[in-house]
Amino acid sequence: MKMIVEFWNSHSESIIGIGYKALLCVAILFASTLVAKGVRRSINKANDRFEKLDATLVPILCATATYVVYIIGGVFILDIFGVNTTSIIALLGAAGIAVGLALKDTLSNIAAGVMLLFLRPFRSGDFVEIGSVMGSVREINLFTTILETFDGLYISSPNSVIWGNSVKNYTRNGKRRMDIVIGIAYSDSIDTGLDVLKRIAVEEPRFLQDPAPETMVVSLAESSVNLQLRGWTTIGDYWQTCWDLNKRVKEEIEKAGLTIPFPQRSVHVVANPGTAEAAEAGA
């Protein structure tokens, strides 16, 4: 007991100082956590209220704000213990170069994610085709882009792969053109077929009038004359309109007395003269 008292008497100021600094560090960490949560909550509330930010940008802003708050808190903690932050920054810079070389692929994903968010080739909810993958964009984070396919599959693709491929965005322009192709027989009237398609185009309320629908003879195929109906719809109406028109075009073409031919081949059998003479000699 006497040793403890003597130790306290001789080191009390140092112990109190260290304890005070430790409490300050804990308080700073706790405050940093609260501030980071508050900043994330504020970003989400501001986005919900004004709806000015793309949903893909919100996770990036939240993560960046959190890192900044904790870095500032760490600087305060180092300053409390009297650490020369200038030397630390220089050391971190050198270490950053080494880590950057070791993690160049990871850093390339981050850089690609920043470029995707800056140039905005797609937004959350857009339906895109990237390379061999098609799906709806769910999220862009620092490292990956999250897609969901038609059949509900989850796809996580590195941002560098997305950035290095051509992006086909089916949603961005707000409208799409559908091409309905139907073949009629060569003996059928082309004008009658075109009249059927024009009537369908006029009666379809989901077609946009600008650009206006068009009908044309698109090709002379081997077994049929191919007619085409082109029309524009909004993105939301595209697929249902396409499915409905494929059914209706077939029914209306047949109702008009026109024929939808099957692929045909004419085969001519020519007997070998030598084989015929041999057969006659044997007889």
Question: Describe it for me?
Answer:
This protein has about 280 residues and is of the alpha+beta class. It folds into three domains: about 100 residues, Helix Hairpins (Orthogonal Bundle); about 50 residues, SH3 type barrels, CATH 2.30.30.60; about 80 residues, Alpha-Beta Plaits (2-Layer Sandwich), CATH 3.30.70. It is about 55% helix and about 20% strand. It has eight helices and eight strands; from the N terminus they run ααααββββαββαββαα. The strands form two sheets. A five-stranded antiparallel beta sheet has the order 4-3-2-1-5. β1 and β2 form a beta hairpin. α1 packs antiparallel against α2. It is elongated. It starts with a helix and ends with a helix. The relative contact order is 0.07. This is MscS Mechanosensitive ion channel. One of its GO terms (cellular component) is plasma membrane. Belongs to the MscS (TC 1.A.23) family. It is found in: Cell membrane. It is a multi-pass membrane protein.
Structural class: alpha+beta
Roughly what is the average pLDDT, rounded to an integer? 81
Overall geometric form: elongated
Q: Tell me how many strands there are.
A: 8
What is the CATH fold-level name of the largest domain? Answer: Helix Hairpins
Biggest β-sheet, characterized?
A: 5 strands, antiparallel
Q: In angstroms, what is the radius of gyration?
A: 36 Å
Q: Please indicate the percent range of residues in DSSP E strands (runs of 2 or more).
A: 15-25%
Number of helical elements: 8
CATH top level class name of the largest domain: Mainly Alpha
**Helix and strand string, N-terminal first?**
HHHHEEEEHEEHEEHH
